[in-house]
Amino acid sequence: MPALLEVRGLTTRFRSSGGTVTAVDDVSFDVAQGETLAIVGESGSGKSVTALSILRLIPTPPGRIEAGQVLFEGQDLLTLDDAGIRAIRGSRIGMIFQEPMSSLNPALTIGLQVAEPIVEHRGATWRDALTRARGLLDRVRIPDAAQRLAAYPHQFSGGMRQRVMIAMAQACEPTLTIADEPTTALDVTVQAQILDLLKTRSEETGSALVLITHDLGVVARYASRVAVMYAGRIVEIAPARRLYRTPQHPYTRGLMQSVPRLDSDTAERLVPIEGQPPDLGRLPQGCAFAPRCRVVMPRCRTERPVLAQIADNHAAACFHHA
Amino acid sequence: MYAYIARRIVFGLLTVIGVSIVIFVVMRVLPGDPLLAVLGPEGLQKLSDADRAKYMADLGLSDPLIVQYLRWMRDVASGTFGTSFFRSESVADMIVRRGPLTAEIALFSVVLSWIVGIPVALISVLRPNSFGDTIARFLSILFLAVPGFWVGMLIILAMLFWFGYRPPLTNIPFWEDPWSNLQIVLPPAIVLGLGQAAYIARMARSSLLEVIREDYVRTARAKGLSGRLVVGLHALPNAMLPVITLSGILMGFVLAGSVPVERAFATPGLGYAMFIAVNERDIFVVQNLVFLYASVFVVLNILIDLTTAWLDPRIRLQ
Lengths: 322, 318
Prior knowledge:
The structure holds 2 protein chains of 2 kinds.
Chain A: E1 3-16, E2 19-32, E3 36-40, H1 47-54, E4 63-72, E5 75-76, H2 82-88, E6 93-96, H3 110-122, H4 126-139, H5 145-148, H6 158-169, E7 176-180, H7 188-205, E8 208-213, H8 216-222, E9 225-230, E10 233-239, H9 240-245, H10 250-257, E11 308-311, E12 314-316
Parallel strand pairs in A: 3-8, 3-9, 6-7, 7-8
Antiparallel strand pairs in A: 1-2, 1-4, 4-5, 9-10, 10-12, 11-12
Helix pairs in contact in A: 3-4, 3-6, 4-6, 6-7
Chain B: H1 2-29, H2 34-46, H3 49-59, H4 65-78, H5 91-126, H6 131-145, H7 148-163, H8 178-212, H9 215-222, H10 227-265, H11 270-279, H12 283-311, H13 313-316
Helix pairs in contact in B: 1-12, 5-6, 5-8, 5-10, 6-8, 7-8, 7-10, 8-10, 9-10, 10-11, 10-12, 11-12
C-alpha cells in the first residue's frame, strides 16, 4: 500500500538567546492509510514539535523547519503556499491538541467551533454545518448534542472538551488525524474512554492516526507501529508487538523495564533509566543516549549512529546492531 | 450576573458619595476668598465686617459645613446644582447648554481612538517587528509623550495657516447646523482622540500578541482558517476585553483633558466653563462640574465593567 504520509529528513530548529536548539533532527517515517502510528518519547524528545511541523504550526519565529519533506498524498506540505497548507489543515489532516482546557476558544460556542471547518472547507452554509456538528457531537457521545451546540467550553469538563476536539478535528473526515498527547491533561478514568473513542472514530472515518504520547500502555493498546524518539531523533521504529517483544535500542529497553507489568508472573523489579534527559542545546558529540546507556561503547561517544534496518519493518539507531 | 450588576451599582453610588465629600472639603480648604472674586481687591478692602457677613450669609457660606454640604446634595438631587456667583444661570442650565458639546468631543475622541488605535495594533501584530510595526510603535510613544494641548496648538496653527480655519466661537448644537458644530467639535476631539489612540494601540498590541499565543488560536489555525479569520474571529474578541476596560479608564484622560484642550480651542463647552470658573473662584460651579465629571466617570466605568462581563460567557452565564 502506498504511504499516506512520508516524512523525510524533517529538521526543525528553535532559535533562542541561549543559542539554536534542534528540536527535531533528521526525522523520517511513513504512515500508511488507515494505520495507527504512535510516536513515543519523554518530554523534550521532539515528538510534539514533529507533529506541529507536519502541519507547519510551529511558532515562527523562534521556530523554523530547516530541512526535509513532508509528503502527504504525494504532495510536499513544506513547499505549499499559505492557501495550499490551509486547504489541508482541518480538512484532510485533523489535529487534536494536548490541553482541552485551553485549546477551545472561551468566547465562542461549541457549535460554532465544531461547524467552522465544515463551513471553511466544504463551503456549507452555517445552518447545514451546525446540523452536521450536532451529528458529530452525537457520534463522540456527547449527551444532548442539540442543546450543547449553544454551550461554551467552560460549561464542559476536560473529557467532554476533548470529545469536542475529536469531533472538530474529524469534522471534514480527514484521511489523517494527528493527536498530540490527547489524554495527558485528563483524569486516568477518562483517558481510556477518549482513546477508545479516537480509535473508533478514526476507524469509522477511515482516517490514519498519528498518536503522540509518552505512555507505553497507550501505545500497546492502540498503535500498530511505534516510533521511539530521543533528543529529537527517532532511535527505533517497529511494529508495536515486535517492539514490545524484542526492543533493540537500549533506550527502548530501558523504557520497557521502567513500566510495571500486570501480566507477568514473577515480581520483576522496575529498572529506572539513570540520569536526566539531555539538554538539546548541548548534545554530546556521539550518540545522544550514550551518557545514560548501560551498554555504551567507546565508539558511541564520538560517532552518531544512524537509523539502520535490522529486520523487516524494524530499524534502530545503535551501534550494537550495525 | 444580576448580583454582579447590583454589587457594581452599590459600589458606584458609594464612590460618588465619597467623591462628593472629597470635592466639598477640597473646595472649602483651597485658598482664595470667594468675595475677592466677586468684588475685586479694592472692593474687598472697603468691605465692612457687617456687609461681609451679609454677603457670606447670602451665598450660604456662613452656615456650618455639614449644612452647606447637605444643602448642596439637596441641590444635586433636585437637579438644579445651585447657581453661579456671577451669572444668573443655574449650573444645571449651564450643563444642559454646554454639556452636549463636551459630550460630543468625548464621544468622537473615543471613537477616533478605536478607529486609529486598533488598526495600528493589527499592523503591529500581523507583521511584528516589521517597518510598519516600528513606525506604529514610534508614533504611539510620541503621542503618549506629547501633551494634548500642545498638539492642539499645532493643529490650530496648521489649520489656520493652510485652510484659514476659523471655528464659530458660539455654541451651535449639532441638530441646528451640523457642519458648524463639527467645525467646533472635531479639532479638540482629534487632539484628545490621538492621545487615547496611542494608549489603545499599545494595549491592543500587547493584548493581541498575548492572545495570539493562546492554544485556541493554534487550534483555529489547525482548522485551516485564513489569517484574517483567525485574528478577527478567534483572537480579536478575546483581546478586546482589556482594551475596552482601558478605554473606560481613559475617560478620565478625556474629561481632564477637556479643560486645557477646550481652553486651547476656545470651545464653548463644559471644560472651558470649568477653566473660567476656577479663574473666577466660582466655587459652586467648580464644585458641581468636578462632581459631574466624577459621576460621569464612575457611571461610564460601571457600564464598561458590565459590558466586558457580558462579553465574557464565563461571567454572563453565571
